[in-house]
C-alpha cells in the first residue's frame, strides 16, 4: 500500500483530499496546526493517522512514497524540513491533483467570479445524466458531499482553477498546473487582495493558463470581458475558442423560460449573472457528451443561492 503524508490538514481542501486519498486505497497520515478534536476524530474514524494538533517531524519516515504540501505551509515548517532531509518526494496540491487526473478529461473552471456557480451547474447536469466524474474544488458545492473525489473508474475530472500561489516551494499559481482539455474562463478582475502585485501579473497568469490547454483543447470564454476576449483571440491554432454570453429567455404568464431550439424550459433564477454562467456550463457539458436538451431539463430543476 502506498503511503502519503499531508501537511496542514486544517486547510479544508487538504482535509477532503486526505479522506479521498484514503478511500482510494492509500495509507494516509496527516498533520496540522489548530486541528480540533472533532477533526482528529473524523480522520481517525476514516482510517487516517493523525497524532493530534501540531507538527510531528519525528513521525515522518523514509518509506513514505510522497508528501503533499498545503498552500499555507511555511518554509520553516519542521515537517517540511524533515521531508527534505529524508529526500522524500514533495508535491503541492495542484501537482498531486494533476498526477491523479492525467488519464482523465480535465475540465478546469477559472476566472475572478462565477466559478462555483458554473461548477454547480455542470455537476447538476452530469449527475442528472448519471455520468461518473472526479473533482477537486476549493469551493463547497451543495450538490457534492465534499471538495474532492478520486476514483479509478471516472473518465472526467472537474477542477476549480484557483489563481493563488501554490505552496512555499512553488511560486507558480495553482491553475497553471492543470493543463485542461476543456477550459472555462469567466472574467478577469484584479484586486490588491490577490497574490499578484499588479494587474499585468494577474493577466499573465491567465495567459499562461490558456497556453497550457492540451492539444486540440477547448477554451470556453466570456465574450463580455475585454481581457478574456483578448486572451481567446490569441490562443494556439489547435485550440477551439468558444464564446458565451447571456442565455436568451422569454416571459410567459409571470414565469421565466429559457428560449431554446428544443422548446422553452422554465427556470427559477432569471438574473443576468445566472443566465451567463448557465451558458458556460452548457457549452462545457456539450463537450462532455451531454445534449443541450438534457442540460436544459436538468437546469430547469436547478436552484442555488447566489
Explain this structure.
The chain is α/β, with parallel strands linked by helices and 306 residues long. It folds into two domains: 1-86, NAD(P)-binding Rossmann-like Domain (Rossmann fold); 94-303, UDP-N-acetylmuramoyl-L-alanine:D-glutamate ligase, CATH 3.40.1190.10. Helices cover 32% and strands 24% of the residues. The protein is built from nine helices and 17 strands. It has helices at 12-23, 37-46, 78-86, 93-100, 115-128, 199-211, 226-233, 272-287, 292-300; strands spanning 3-7, 27-31, 49-50, 66-69, 89-92, 105-110, 133-136, 148-149, 156-161, 165-167, 170-173, 182-185, 218-222, 240-244, 249-252, 255-260, 263-266. The strands form four sheets. Strands 8-7-9-6-12-13-14 form a seven-stranded mixed beta sheet, sandwiched between helices. Strands 3-2-1-4-5 form a five-stranded parallel beta sheet, with helices on both faces. A hairpin with a 2-residue loop joins strand 15 and strand 16. Helix 5 crosses helix 8 (272-287) and helix 8 (272-287) packs across helix 9 (292-300). The longest helix is centred in the C-terminal third of the chain and has 16 residues, at 272-287. It starts with a strand and ends in a 6-residue tail after the last helix. 42% of the residues are buried. The model has no long low-confidence stretch (mean pLDDT 92).
